[in-house]
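Handoff note, outgoing to incoming analyst
You'll be picking up this chain. Sequence as last confirmed:
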Amino acid sequence: MTPTYFRRALTTTVLAAAIAGFAGTAALAQEKEPREAVVSVFGEGHAQVAPDMAILSFSVIKDAKTAREALDANNKAMADVLNALKAGGIAERDLQTSGFAVNPQYQYPDNNDGGNRPAVLTGYQVANSLTIKVRDLAKLGEIIDQSVTLGVNQGGSIQFTNDKPEATIIEARKEAVADAVAKAKVLSEAAGVALGRIVEISENSSRPEPLPMMRTMAKEYAADAVPIATGENSYNVTVNVTFAIMQ
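Most recent structure output, in case you need it:
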């Protein structure tokens, strides 16, 4: 090998060592640099609003000797319910079949004597479930009453909600941030330090859903139909806020 080659190799080795030494020094300096002092808190916000929509779920269940007979009876009852709902102003987009099932029905003999008697097929049951969005709450009691009259015989769960809750959720967000700021101020004052800039702020990733609440001024719909009390919905928001501490 030539002297020129050895000189180049030596130069490369020296440069590599210098770079490695510089990187190590920089990393050591970074490790010694103190972390920014922060305080992290969470805030909760709540905003209430009266519901303006209800989601109603119920089913028509019919039993018969054959599956065909059970289905025919169920079809007639559900068709009567759907026609009545549409005639009452419920739009097609607010009606959705949410379940359908055909199940055999058995009678299980008494086997107290130790016998092994097989189950006896006694007929069939057809269940058709419907989910309805009721946008005029004044009609809700009437809808339930009429649906039962026409053949609904199972279910009846009701969820009161809001079609456009965004404005209420914004109010809850504002309250949540204000709550976080208030908590951070208490903590910093107790520690004898001053709050600095906001380093990070985040909201609970799940969309706030309405929580039913009782209230004394709830609207009640009764007349000759099923009595309905709407109460009000509460939308809750949680935020996490990190503040720098001024030292």
